[in-house]
Write a structure and sequence with these properties.
The protein has about 350 residues and is α/β, with parallel strands linked by helices. Helix 2 crosses helix 4, helix 2 packs across helix 8 and helix 6 packs across helix 8. It has a six-stranded mixed β-sheet, with helices on both faces. A two-stranded parallel ribbon has the order 6-7. The chain has one domain: Zn peptidases (Aminopeptidase, 3-Layer(aba) Sandwich). The protein contains eight helices and eight strands. A hairpin with a 4-residue loop joins strand 1 and strand 2. The chain is globular, with a radius of gyration of 18 Å. The longest helix is centred in the last third of the chain and has 23 residues. Bound molecules: zinc ion (ZN).
């Protein structure tokens, strides 16, 4: 993904969904096809400038338990809005969180133009302070039906793209609940991330849930009805066997440094930041509203992305566990930087 000849491939290929602006570590290129936000992709961080973070290990077996959640979710079938699998998955998310004693909130609405009903689900784990850090994912899978090109219509499992991050948040919930911390942690499961068109088309028909959540947050904040979201950590496709989380260049630079430092502290640096490219995703509506955000996404070079091969066979509990380590290691520093506001 580093040569100019790859740019054409990316424009044709990656622009199909999570829109990708392209910047390589050697030479940054301005946002191109698929860039949806008002700001530009940032420059890659200096990987030599590592913060001395203390590794926080995920509990033993967490990755394998997350993989079992993925298996269950995929058994529900396709999970785009309106499908039986989508309904069952929403129930599963809510039931799993409620079983931990957490209060689940839902926001269901019908998009008037699309005539599709979406549901965002979330829960809040109170900290010493009311300021919030959001851990988020999307729960919908891409609809692979009704597209003009027959090659785009097939049975899509969405084990990684959809399933992995939902599963990981469900497994992080009890860990976070058992930990005293400064920030309030929200776990948010957005609906409607995937583009209704086959192509990403500047997110014109995508990011429904995150756009709505971010807009509602701004309104409630102005009315004093809820505490500020100080930072957002987004997970998207975090369970592939050959996991590689790119450095996503729309993400806030300081959060990218914290993410990289956490990966180094945990001994997982080989899974992170070998490529640096921007990707439009659920974090963008938050960035657009001035909320710092970082996207942990395995898009560049992912051979199963939006393919029939995005199945449980190509998933690994080890990958899920490594991402859990890194997220848990990031959190104290994210709190320090964005909630306690220490330099
Ligand atoms: Zn997708």
């Amino acid at each position: 993904m580093r040569t100019s000849s790859m740019l054409g491939f990316l424009a044709a290929g990656l622009a199909a969904c999570i829109g990708a602006a392209i910047a390589t570590r050697q030479a940054a290129t301005p946002p191109g096809a698929g860039a949806t936000n008002q700001h530009e992709a940032g420059r890659p961080i200096d990987q030599r400038a590592v913060l001395p973070l203390t590794p926080v290990r995920a509990p033993e077996g967490l990755g394998d338990r997350a993989l079992e959640h993925v298996r269950t979710l995929t058994e529900f079938g396709q999970r785009h809005p309106g499908t039986p699998g989508w309904t069952r998955q929403l129930e599963y998310i809510a039931n799993t969180l409620q079983a931990l004693g957490l209060t689940v909130q839902r926001d269901t609405w019908t998009d008037r133009k699309e005539r599709i009903t979406f549901t965002n689900v979330w829960t809040s784990i109170p900290g010493r302070r009311k300021e919030r850090i959001v851990l988020a994912c999307h729960h919908d899978t891409k609809c692979m039906q009704g597209h003009p090109d027959p090659a785009h219509n097939f049975h899509f499992v969405g084990a990684n793209d959809g399933g992995s991050a939902v599963a990981l948040l469900l497994e992080l919930a009890p860990v976070l609940r058992a930990t005293e911390r400064d920030a309030t942690i929200d776990l948010v499961f957005f609906d409607g991330e995937e583009s209704l068109d086959w192509a990403w088309n500047d997110a014109a028909r995508a990011l429904f849930g995150s756009k709505r959540f971010a807009t509602q947050h701004r309104e409630k904040l102005l009315l004093g009805e809820e505490a500020r979201i100080e930072a957002l950590i987004l997970l998207d496709m975090v369970g592939r066997t050959d996991l590689h989380i790119q450095e996503e260049l729309y993400s806030t630079s300081r959060l990218r440094t914290i993410l990289w430092s956490a990966a180094v502290a945990c001994g997982h640096r080989e899974l992170f930041f070998r490529t640096a490219e921007a990707a439009s995703d659920d974090h963008v509506p938050f960035l657009d509203r001035g909320i710092p955000a970082v996207d942990l996404i395995d898009l560049v070079g992912n051979p199963h992305w939006h393919k029939a091969t995005d199945t449980i066979d190509n998933m690994s509990g080890k990958s899920l566990h490594a991402v859990a380590d890194v997220v848990l290691t990031m959190l104290p520093e994210v709190e320090r930087a964005y909630v306690l506001r220490k330099e």
